[in-house]
Amino acid sequence: MKEILNDTILEIIEDENVKFDIVTTGLTVSFFGNEAISNVNMKIRSKSITAIIGPSGCGKSTLLRSLNMMHDLTPGAKVTGRITIHGKNISDYNMTHVRRKVGMVFQKPNPFPTMSVFGNVVSGLTLNKKYNKTYLDDIVEKCLKHAGLWDEVKDRLNISAMALSGGQQQRLCIARTLAVGPEIILLDEPTSALDPISTSKIEETLQLLKKDYTIVMVTHNMQQAARTSDYTAYFFLGKLIEQGKTRNIFTSPKEKLTEDYVTGRFG
User: Fold this and answer.
1) Quick one: average pLDDT of 161-170?
2) Which pick of 125, 126, 194, 235 has the fewest CB atoms within 10 Å?
3) Going by C-beta distance under 8 Å and a sequence separation of 6 or more, which residues neighbour residue 157?
C-alpha cells in the first residue's frame, strides 16, 4: 500500500506490529522567515537504521536537529508542525529529558579534551549526580563495548581522549551518548571526517546498536546509506520527496527526483 502525503511518496507496511518511535506531521523549520524544511511527514521505525540523504543544503541536518529540540535555542529559528517521540508530543517533554531520550553524535568527533577516556564516557551521568565507582566502571565497560571500542582502550582508560585516533574519538562519542541511556540515536554524517577503516568500524558498530536503539543517520555517502540502513528518506530543497525501504529507494524509486539523485544524474 502507498500513502500519498503532500506529494511525498511514503511506503507503509501493513503490519500491526510495526512500531514507530518518531513521527513528524507537517514539520516546518525556518530561520528568520526562510524555510529550511517544509511540511515534512515521516515515520521512523523502531530498532532500525534510517538514512537521510539528499544534496547539500536540502535540510537533512535541520530535520535531524529538530528531533531533539536543538533549534529551540537558535536565534531566529521557528519550528511548527508536530513531532512525536514514542507517541508523545515532543513539546510535552522538557528539553533535558528529550536530550537524554534522543542522543546526538555530530559530524566531527568532539570528546571533552580535558577529560580521560573514562571521564568522557561518564560525563553526562556525573554532571548532576554522584555514583559509586563500581557502577561507573560497569557503565564504561558496557558502553565502550557497545561502541566497539573496549578492546582498544580497556588498558588505558585514564589517558586523555585526545590521544585517541579520529575514529576512536568518534566511537568514544557514541559511548558517551549511550551512557545516559537514550532510546534513539541521531548521527549527523558521523564518518565524513574519517578514513575508510574507521568508517567501516563505525558502520559495524551501528549494525550492533540497532538491536537496542533506533538510529537516524544523515549521510552524503549514498554507498554508506545503501549498505548500512534499513530505510532511506530522500530530501530535496527542504522537502521529503520519498521514504521507504533502502533497497527500494536505490533499485526502484517511485519518484524521478529520487531516481535522478541515486543514479548520480545530479547532486
Assistant:
1) 96
2) 126
3) 116, 117, 118, 140
